[in-house]
Amino acid sequence: MIKTIPGGVIAPKGFKAGSVHCGIKRNIKNHDIGIIFSEESCKAAALFTTNQIVAAPIKYCRKIIQNGAVHAIVVNSGNANACTGKKGYNDAEKMAHLTSKHLNIKSNEVIVASTGIIGRLLPMKKIQSGISKSIAHLGNQNTHSLNIAKAIMTTDIVPKHIAVKTRLGRKEVTIGAIAKGSGMISPKMATMFCFITTDASISLNTLRSCIKKSVEDSFNQITIDGHMSTSDMVAILANGMAHNQNITSSSKHNLTLFQKALDYVTLHMAKAIVKDGEGATKFVQVEINEAKSISDARKIARMIAESPLVKTAINGEDPNWGRIISAAGYADVTLDESRLKLFINKITIYKNGLPVTPIPKRLLSEMKKDEIKIQLHLGMGNKSTTLWTCDLSKEYVKINAEYHT
Amino acid sequence: MIKTIPGGVIAPKGFKAGSVHCGIKRNIKNHDIGIIFSEESCKAAALFTTNQIVAAPIKYCRKIIQNGAVHAIVVNSGNANACTGKKGYNDAEKMAHLTSKHLNIKSNEVIVASTGIIGRLLPMKKIQSGISKSIAHLGNQNTHSLNIAKAIMTTDIVPKHIAVKTRLGRKEVTIGAIAKGSGMISPKMATMFCFITTDASISLNTLRSCIKKSVEDSFNQITIDGHMSTSDMVAILANGMAHNQNITSSSKHNLTLFQKALDYVTLHMAKAIVKDGEGATKFVQVEINEAKSISDARKIARMIAESPLVKTAINGEDPNWGRIISAAGYADVTLDESRLKLFINKITIYKNGLPVTPIPKRLLSEMKKDEIKIQLHLGMGNKSTTLWTCDLSKEYVKINAEYHT
């Protein structure tokens, strides 16, 4: 039984968060730096963007995560510290050192993350004061989680945090998280930030495989604009303070329960990122069935979800399904037109290579709904995948034509 | 010496065109069907979309083009005859038969092409009367070319036709063409229509290799929205009426001259399609240099050109170059950040892994120009490529959200 509870990222035992406005963002009301801290050092695992061009904090974190031990996370928004060379790397390292010094923890146990504009050096004086003030504000109330969820936002409109409880044997284990989107979102790990905390006791290798599996079916299955970011990161910290029987690869039942709770959190966050996609007015689920392989299904789902023609048709509440079929056709997957079946919100509109005529009237009212479900059966095998995306609106263009200057 | 002349697709000797409004498009002023006819049967070659889902006329043409002989082209707009099953195929075949009967030519020497909405059966009565009327209107004036260029338009704003003359030995050879875009445009052959006529005498194999080579560096190097169409076709018809010495693979000098003139035509048309891209306000050239291979260069150029974040930044006249570098980073090509050099309209803005600071003021005025040239040097080798694209505007979203209903 998975139960959602308040508290977000600080809901698990032993976690605190603190955040402030340090001056990177213009509006003084907007927090732009924050710290997540665990009373005890955590087993930790993280996944990073697969972009060849990565921000300085990613380079730094790739190194320190190898030890599998993390005690705190420091994160800022408004500046990605990307394309900033050696100086940028030193700045990321300095953020870790400042944080560790103030918290009296090891400097190689601090995750550093930055998001925002690419190509500008961090204002290190502001960062320095932001770190000490954030630490002064550390606390474990729901508002602390909400505030740090806001502190990592860029073009996001809605702060994203969640916590769930599950029972493992006689112990309750809690998982909390904060996340941010909402542009530069494309599948292929990980295209955003999600910081996950848990008080579960779990072996490092099991934690690593759990998060990898969970990300595969959540954050790697969303796309907003197909542009992969330089700064993406999903990190999970487990401090063991729930004192459950340690979860390992051989603890089958508890491992399944923990994985389920973790999947619940990551899928919730993945969907929340899509719903808050830049300019999004519709939440779109693309389901590919009867594929020869999962990889085939994913390729097709991605082509459909990233086609600007499909996305604008959905924005216009227009059942222009020819755009869906034609996008499936250029995914580099062998298809047989006569075996395809296409449904929108469960209404059959194309089968045996022919459109259903006349177009069911109900389809027009379905297109007006906030959630659109596209299902395409390929008739080539028995593999399936689901991907989540949003529409493409004039608002998306406005946001991104005006973001920088 | 390549010289542009009037006449478009009917400029080469022996070609005529005719077009009318037959009732597929709503506005009676808009021609929606047309015929291109050569007095003599032509050697012909064609390239088609690589989409797995192809329109009925593509299936039909793939078969008949194998003979290498074409006498006429019949083309309609407003309906793509795609996703229309067996009936759609029979309709395409019927268009060829009706055309051949009226023109008294062989029925397997007629190219059929349809563009427009996907998933609707052709109104064959209208088509039938449109074919006979188009034939009644056949002529070889500039307006005949202009009218058929208009007749193949869908969301295009500007009709696209051109003709060039070049001298091969003592004979003048003419190449003419019409083309259409302007959505569902993505590199990977061919993403639009372009019908090319020439009075050159040329062997079939040479014609085939010339058109393939020419398309590779023109239509395959443009992208508007990354959505590959089901109906794309580039066809060339050569009737030999210029009576030049027959061009073969061994006629080096004349072959080079012919290829150059053909390349001029295809590149002109490719750029014209991008300039008339849906909602386009800027013409963008993406040049990748110092790549290890052409394929690497093309992958990166494509990622940059198809990123909605790059396209909206250009729309907003915003030198947000971090989006360009980060798009290059996810093209699945190994990069070394410290070797990259990025220029916009020849102004250096990023090198040695660092932004040029302060940002040159001139850059802001350059961003306001109608033509933006992005040059990225990878420092990995000596291969280059150039790709052409346009920006992404609110108007694109408007056009495509409202196209269907």
From TrEMBL, chains A, B:
Enzyme Commission designation: 2.3.1.35, 2.3.1.1
Record-annotated membrane-spanning stretches: none
Keyword Acyltransferase part of the UniProt annotation: yes
Annotated site residues (Involved in the stabilization of negative charge on the oxyanion by the formation of the oxyanion hole) in this chain: 115-116
A Pfam entry, by short name: ArgJ
Binding site residues for substrate: 154, 180, 191, 278, 400, 405
Family annotation (InterPro entries): Arg_biosynth_ArgJ, ArgJ-like_dom_sf, ArgJ_beta_C
Keyword Transferase: yes
Active site: residue positions: 191 (nucleophile)
Entry GO CC: cytoplasm
Signal peptide: none
Domain of life from the UniProt record: Bacteria
Entry protein name: Arginine biosynthesis bifunctional protein ArgJ
Organism of this sequence: Candidatus Scalindua rubra
